[in-house]
Amino acid sequence: MPVITLQYDDLKKLVGTDKDTILKHIPMIGADIERIEDTYADVEFFPDRPDLFSVEGVARAMRGFLGIETGLRKYDVKKSNMSIIIEKSVKLIRPCLACAVVRGLHFNSASIESLMALQEDLHWGLGRNRKKVSIGVHDISKVKPPFVYKAVDPNTEFVPLDFDKKMSMRTILKEHPKGVRFAHMLEGVNRYPLIVDSGDNVLSFPPIINGTLTAVTEETTDMFIEVTGMDASVAMALNIVVTALAERGAKIESVEIISDGKSAFTPDLSPTSRELSIGEVNSLLGLTLDAKQIVRELEKMRFGATVKGEAIEVAIPAYRADILHNWDLIEDVAIGYGFDKFKPELPETATIGRAHPIEDKLALLREIMVGLGFLEVTTFTLTNERVHFDMMKRTQANVTKVKHPISEEHTMIRCTILPNLMGVLSRNKHVEMQQKIFEVGDVIVDSKDMQKLAGVSTHSTANFAEVKSVVESMLKELGLEYEIAESNDPAFLEGRRASILVKKKSVGVFGEIHPDVILNFGLDHPVVAFEIGVC
Amino acid sequence: MASDKPSTLTANEKCILLALNKVKSADPQKLAAESGLQIDAAMQAAFLLAKKGLANIVEETIVLYSPTPEGELYARQGLPELRIIAYAEGKPTPLIKLKNTFSDKEISIALGWLKQKGLASIEKRGKETVITPLKTHKKYPPEEVLHYLLAHHPETLTSYPSTTIQELVGRDLIRCTERTSRVIAITNEGRKLVRKGIEIGEDLGQLTPDLIRSGEWRKKRLRPYDIHASSTRIFAAKKHPYQRLLDEMRQICLEMGFEEIKGSHIQTSFWNFDALFQPQDHPAREMQDTFYLDSKGKLPGEYVQNVKEMHEHGGDIGSTGWSGHWSEELAKTNVLRTHTTAITIKYLADNPNPPVKVFCIGRVYRREAIDATHLPEFEQLEGVVMDEGVSFKNLLGCLAEFYHRVGFKDVRFRPGYFPYTEPSVEPEVYVPELGWIELGGAGIFRQEVTAPLGIEHPVLAWGLGVGRLAMLRLGLRDLRDIYAPDIDWLRRYPACQL
Fold this sequence. Notes:
The structure holds two protein chains of two kinds. By secondary structure, chain A is of the alpha+beta class. In chain A, about 30% of the residues lie in helices and about 30% in strands. By secondary structure, chain B is α+β, with helices and mostly antiparallel strands. In chain B, strands 9, 13, 14, 15, 16, 17, 18 and 19 form an eight-stranded mixed sheet that branches. The longest helix of chain B has 15 residues, at about 240-255. Chains A and B meet through helix 8, helix 10, helix 11, strand 19 and strand 22 of A and helix 12, strand 9, strand 11, strand 13 and helix 17 of B.
């Protein structure tokens, strides 16, 4: 999740109050303070609130929450008389575009850095790593509109950011660090997106890299912003960026987007509207707020709100990406009201608690095994074929394998517990004998959940007779009618192994572990073991 | 720790006490001889008596002397100075004459001592040196010491003057060695006890069925144990402390009236993600965060269309949905469940009639690199309440009650974010050593989640990773310790610590 660095000086100026008040209340709008330093704090905001990914956005929200400036923030948008044409060629590759002009900027190195950080966080969140959204900012004094967004031959050359020589777009994907990182997004495409000005000067190669020509510096006062992508989130990303800049006094101007002969203007910062029922707010939150109070809480959260009979008409700022449904607004009412003001109250729902029969049975098995002197252990269900089959001398069976394991150690889900217990013994080789351990837990057999119980005992004189008496005691405690039959499990020694049959069906095995298996696990004492399916 | 009861003494102790009473004090050899016990047994009993205040053991270091080879020679021949005096028979004797009988070395040794001790006068007479014995001596201590040691060495020389001993050591005629010796003496307590009467009989170590049945035990004496002696360690078999914690959580949920549910580890993406309104391009669904399986599962036909419409357009509840295309094929992909919510949501879909209060504790999987605080699998606990008219305030009520029962007195709530709840809340508990700790997450299921499944009432839901709680409660620093058992740690971890 995005972590925003908030410089106290900047934050104080933008919010209009002292840093301690701000830091004290920030967690209550939905944030985790990661660290507090002498001159700045790092704060993590939630991914559904990209409007808080900049210090300007945070300041706007905090002004409302602290009651310094509440209600809907209005932004003026003038026409810039600039336009950009979307050519058909790019429609199948990266069809969506939103642009704006921002004038009257006074950058310093810190505010440039903050803008870059906002861009990166938007690329991550809304943009799904640039797949859905990528943003380019340009010094407008270096180029001449109208602009064109089109798809071109990969051999087209320009000088990309951070380089000082012309490169073809194909080369950029192979050699430029950003190209290498994002090249996969243009796989299978034979023409690449490009934005140029009226003189064919390259502004950007979305979603990969900008041209060096329009690089934004501290001297930049007027900026052209383009957001390309796959759906309507491009408009949201643009709104978030331009309103953040406007918080510092910059002026926003719209750009005409011409596509298929039709024209539209972006950005559109007019609020959207939702009607919220007072009854729904109170029943969901368990409060008894009146219309005025709800309006007040919404205004604290920077919405516009007016009472309309039994409902409230809410104007949602164009930078809020998280309002999909009325309950999203109700959450904001709760945040405005203050989570700390709620009086928790148990629901009146009267029900009777009931444990799951399987869990009851497992608890019983634990009791029996502890009574028989076995210590309980817990292990991972993720394991690998080498330990699970090869080291046990067993042939590989059909198991549940994961597609992208984190390591060679965790490639499948266990279908038996015994190999895990052998692993435990091998890790505890230095620990005082006699070791008697058991585990009862989940395994997956033929893609179905099952519970098994396994136990091992190791010491210098462990033998078949010992494990047989353990197994039979356990089976008797379970009240099972069973038979003992010859087993051919290769993990055990021939002539010292047996199957447990219940209703003529094999449910488990016990005996002396084969010396080869003992050695495979780096052990040297005799080991006797059993395993039985229990649920 | 004085003891006045003879019955608490072992047979050996009684034996030694009686022997000491006779001889007052003795060294170990003597004590052994006197009591008829082996030296080791005698001393063991003596130490026990000393512990009880009935005997004293004094350790002293004694110095023993033995003649050197030269000393032994002189002890047999006589010291050179004495032999020369004897030779001279009281008369002045020229040195030159002595050389016929004595070696140069003997003469030079003798002259020094004769002169130093004033046993003879040594004068130059013309060209000759003449030795004249001054008096006939009766006793010459160095010689007596040598004779004594020749017969007894090694031995102490406590009755000889220290100047003589120093002289002989200086002349390298005798050498000393040190030995620590113990002297055991009876105390007044011991004497008193003996006066009361001590009876020597055979002690019994083990009570046997025969002794009990025959009544013989009444006639014999059962040897008392030293109750402070160290005992053999037995390793108690027990449940894993982590399991104990899980059981405690389960018990709390049951007491709060929740019913336990279980479900499969393998889930379709549909139940794990789509039914929870997780967009299909959500980062959490990517293969770097989730364990995907090769297999595909069956979709619940009755819900598929509703869920698709909810994702694409927001259904008919006034939601915007996620827009874009929702793929049925992606929803079929099987995963290892990333949360138990996959189980609870399916249960709610199957049981849409209020009230429902269920909980689930189960292993969940995240594709995370393993370190001290991240594991690819861990237990999650989740509880839901679905009923007519339940509210956010009730959710906070459940959370507060639950965490209080887990043992956290102070609980507070902050806004949170979870993709399938709205409002969402992050509960925090106060831990004295650590401050406020985030523990779990909660919220009310979004209508985008409940509506397509036909669930008409609010669903309050909360969950937590039990590992985090285990770290707080079991004092673990590393989550891996739960699943990589250290038998030694388990043996040492007291069952009642929880």
